[in-house]
Design a protein that fits this description.
single chain; alpha/beta; 6-stranded parallel beta sheet; 4-stranded antiparallel beta sheet
């Protein structure tokens, strides 16, 4: 699965390219498998596409994913030193900081995104959303999370966190988006996200997810 992802991306890389990455356990695994054949002889910058998760396990953070991918493939990286899920007033002030503005200028040049999809409530817990917000997600039938946006089973957007960097609307303007997900437990989240009709997206999943989604479609 991961090698397929790398082959697909290597096939479309231009001489100069910015690759944006998300965080999470799947992306941590992807980063661990990158080697110097990834983007060989290309001038590539790897960057997180949005602020970091507020979790203690920094191995899942998008900054860490970008760093590891870049170091393993011998490319450059640009980090985004800003938290995820912050108040609008704080966000507005952070955007004015030169180091953050520079990082955002790099992110704006992203032409390839690599990300995964999370279970809505697992991600809500990692982002330390309030109990009130988690209850609202439950009432709205949230199933999946990607780019800080939460979707119900039909792919309707039910909530979005505030962060520095790309939001779901920004992501959909990127020419090439690669979504990689593994494990049957993620099938419902994948089904939910697919129903949001993501643009420009190549989905890479394993057989267990595929079978479960097919069964859901047949039952519906």
């Amino acid at each position: 699965m991961v090698q397929l992802l790398f082959d697909k991306i290597n096939g479309i890389l231009t001489k100069e390219c910015v690759i944006g990455v998300s965080g999470g356990s799947t992306m941590q695994y992807v980063a661990s498998k990158v080697d110097k054949t990834f983007g060989y002889d290309k001038n590539i910058v790897i960057t997180p596409i949005r602020g970091a998760l507020t979790i203690s396990n920094t191995g899942y953070q998008s900054n860490d994913i970008a760093t590891r991918m870049a170091e393993n493939s011998n490319h450059n990286y640009q980090l985004l030193h800003a938290p995820d899920n912050i108040e609008s007033s704080t966000l507005d002030e952070l955007i004015k900081e030169p180091i953050v503005k520079y990082a955002l200028d790099i992110i704006d040049k992203t032409s390839i995104i690599i990300h995964s999809i999370g279970d809505a409530f697992e991600m809500a817990s990692r982002r330390k959303l309030t109990d009130n917000l988690i209850n609202k997600l439950r009432e709205s039938g949230a199933k999946s999370e990607a780019f800080g946006s939460y979707f119900d089973n039909e792919g309707n957007l039910v909530y979005a966190t505030k962060t520095i960097g790309m939001n779901n609307e920004d992501v959909l303007k990127v020419a090439n988006i690669f979504t990689i997900v593994g494990g049957e437990c993620k099938a419902d989240a994948v089904y939910s996200y697919l129903n949001s009709n993501p643009a420009n997206t190549t989905l890479i999943i394993d057989e267990s997810i595929c079978k479960k989604i097919i069964n859901k479609v047949i039952q519906n």
